[in-house]
Design a protein that fits this description.
Blueprint: E1 4-7, E2 14-16, E3 36-37, H1 100-104, H2 106-133, H3 141-183, H4 192-200, H5 208-216, H6 223-249, H7 255-286, H8 329-340, H9 350-360
Antiparallel strand pairs: 1-2, 1-3
Length: 361
């Protein structure tokens, strides 16, 4: 193999010289430099590498005698873009789940449902007052029509928003369980289908929602969430029983039973409104928020390690008077006893002065 090569001025490839030198690079059609040994040092080569700027052009040299302007420190006027761009990895976008917007408005739907059931209860009470008045007097058709519109409209809207609220709460339950189990590094053992069927199928939905919620907060140390779930569970079962009783009451055919059914329907609407309020409160407790939806700040209790320092110095018992020179022990004891039992004697220093005068004599 020949040890004489010709470097390419464009691509830098080196081609071995076989017989006669070449002029053009077979790879890139660039100019080939003159042959030189493959390991020739720089001083033995008949060419040299010159680094030029990409925008190099032939510039006229300054005239003799003219000062050459000094170039400042080279710097970039903008961030260079010629380097490798390595943007930070973006998290993979989660696939949009169905009814996501409805789940996000669960609180608003529950508040609206509560208001509509309260209006429906008031409409039933007004209907009962009309029935009482109708025992002795006739009711104007326009007033009766307004009562019918208020009762039917409030009931239909309340039921519609109750259905939307139920769907939103089920979606919230699915998301809350998924997030809670992800914190522990596990997947939710119950599928979405099981959660939906357990919350939607009649009679079955009186039991399983409480079970699903209890599993959600089973690993928490705060008992408030579990207490709120139990209260809501009891109210949910009670509301289901009352709703079933209201439906059975409508099958009565006597006038008095129908009139009593109006009152019982009003009571049922109040229970439904209370269940909606408890549902909203339970959701916020599980989310570790207060009743108004604000984030509940955790309290940190610190153990005091320093001893307690009294602010007021405790009162110390006064010392006994010293025994005077020449005073016998019985007299000193008698004197001390008199001081200890000095109840009702005003301590104004007169007794001490008299005693000092006696001792001085």
């Amino acid at each position: 193999m020949s040890t004489v090569v010709q470097p390419c001025a464009r691509c830098g490839a080196r081609w071995a010289v076989q017989s006669t030198p070449m002029h053009w690079c077979p790879r890139c059609r660039g100019v080939l430099l003159s042959p030189a040994p493959i390991d020739a040092p720089a001083e033995r080569r008949n060419y040299r590498w010159v680094a030029r700027r990409p925008d190099h052009r032939a510039r006229r040299s300054p005239a003799a005698g003219q000062p050459v302007p000094s170039a400042g420190t080279p710097r970039y006027t903008h961030i260079p873009r010629w380097g490798l761009v390595d943007p930070p990895p973006r998290p993979a976008a989660e696939a949009p789940r169905p009814l996501t917007r409805l789940t996000a408005k669960a609180s608003t739907l529950l508040i609206t449902t509560t208001a509509l059931f309260a209006v429906a209860s008031v409409a039933e009470l007004l209907r009962y007052l009309l029935l009482l008045r109708n025992r002795t007097r006739l009711i104007h058709p326009a007033l009766l029509l307004c009562s019918d519109v208020l009762v039917v409209g409030a009931a239909v809207l309340a039921l519609l928003f109750a259905l939307l609220s139920a769907v939103a709460v089920v979606g919230w339950l699915v998301d809350a369980r998924r997030a809670a189990f992800q914190e522990t590094g596990r997947a939710d053992p119950r599928s979405v289908r099981v959660l939906v069927l357990g919350c939607v199928v009649p009679v079955v939905n009186l039991l399983w929602p409480g079970v699903f919620l209890t599993e959600l907060v089973a690993r928490r140390s705060d008992p408030r969430a579990l207490r709120a779930i139990r209260i809501w569970w009891a109210a949910w079962v009670f509301g289901g029983v009352v709703a079933a009783a209201a439906l059975l009451w409508r099958t009565a055919d006597s006038l008095q039973a129908e009139a009593d059914g109006v009152l019982f329907t009003a009571f049922t609407d109040l229970v439904a409104a209370a269940v909606a309020v408890l549902t909203l409160a339970m959701m916020r407790v599980v989310e570790e928020r207060d009743v108004l939806g604000r984030s509940r700040n955790a309290r940190r209790w610190l153990v005091a390690v320093d001893p307690a320092v009294p602010v007021i110095e405790p009162v110390q018992p006064g010392g006994r008077a010293p025994r005077a020179v020449g005073e016998s022990a019985p007299d000193a004891a008698e004197h001390n006893n008199a001081e200890d039992s000095g109840a009702g004697v005003e301590d104004n220093g007169a007794v001490d002065r008299e005693q000092q005068e006696v001792l001085a004599k």
